[in-house]
Write a structure and sequence with these properties.
Elements (H helix, E strand, L loop, with lengths): L10 E2 L2 E2 L11 E5 L7 E7 L2 E12 L12 E8 L15 H17 L8 E11 L4 H15 L8 E9 L2 E4 L3 H6 L2 E8 L4 E4 L2 E2 L3 H30 L11
Parallel strand pairs: 6-7
Antiparallel strand pairs: 1-2, 3-4, 4-5, 5-7, 8-9, 8-10, 10-11, 10-12
Bound molecules: cytidine-5'-diphosphate (CDP).
Length: 248
């Protein structure tokens, strides 16, 4: 996230700049089975974010020293296309940020997947952000989660997440680009279906009470997002979606 700028108004007449209520998420659409060569795949449009995920494997681990004898090694590669963001394109592509996001996503997916079913193997999860507009790590998690389900991988639980944060002193959910850049905090959280937190990061500051409220609000919304994943899978099996990439 960027730095807080008190001169930029993010809440006007009790509403956010894009007209959303404080607890309202941007529109989310999910399609699964969109890549022919992947074992499982998904595309996610979340507000102005556009993300595609493909999962490959399980296969033998290479390089071999990364092999885990008792479970699968999940290699999540989050990457942002060089054209993903107009204003910030010079910072896109592989960098420390994408390495860090890849790492935290891998850790989260390791809790979701029954990794013990594939000892000594590796599963590659490639997630590419084609268009970025704040909250890409959560859109990436969502696409990866849907791709794993589409691929029929055995799971402990389904999971999903959303961010909370502060904009102009108001607690808001699912920060957009302006709120992410100029708000006071950004708190992306991912929950599993039991309500446990499997990913949590924070920029900026908020009070303990605001943190508690953020957790209550985001955990409820994450359940709604899990329902969207289920519906996307049902739509595929009902033959209701074209199983190809379509970002329109
Ligand atoms: O995307 P997310 O909110 O998970 O991560 P962030 O590091 O807080 O980035 C916030 C937003 O800044 C991204 O969603 C992009 O819109 C933008 N950004 C970008 O365009 N290029 C980068 N290299 C990094 C961030």
């Amino acid at each position: 996230m960027g730095s807080h700028n008190p001169n930029i108004k993010l809440i006007v007449d009790g509403k956010r700049l894009d007209g959303r209520a404080f607890d309202q998420l941007r529109n989310i659409s999910i399609n699964v089975g969109v890549l022919e060569n992947a074992v499982g795949s998904a595309q996610v449009i979340w507000g102005d974010n556009k993300v595609v995920a493909g999962v490959y494997g399980p296969r033998d681990v290479f390089p071999k020293y990364q092999q885990k004898p008792d479970k699968a090694f999940i290699r999540t590669i989050y990457s942002m296309a060089t054209f993903a963001s107009i204003e910030e394109h010079s910072r896109s592509g592989p960098n420390k940020r994408s390495q860090e996001i890849s790492f935290v996503l891998s850790e989260a997916f390791e809790n979701v997947l029954m990794v013990e079913k594939f000892p000594g193997k590796m599963i590659d999860l490639h997630i590419t952000v084609l268009q970025a507009a704040a909250g890409t790590r959560l859109a990436a998690f969502l696409a990866g989660m849907a791709a794993l389900i589409d691929g029929g991988f055995p799971l402990n639980e389904i999971a999903a997440g959303v961010s909370a944060g502060k904009a102009d002193g108001a607690l808001v959910l699912d920060l957009d680009k302006a709120e992410d850049n100029f708000g006071q905090s950004d708190l992306p959280i991912v929950y599993n279906s039991s309500g446990e937190i499997i990913l949590l990061q924070m920029d900026g500051k908020m009070t303990r009470d605001e943190l508690t409220e953020s957790i209550e609000l985001t955990s409820a919304k994450s359940k709604d997002i899990m329902d969207l994943i289920r519906k996307a899978v049902e739509r595929k099996y009902a033959g209701e979606v074209k199983t190809e990439l379509n970002f329109r």
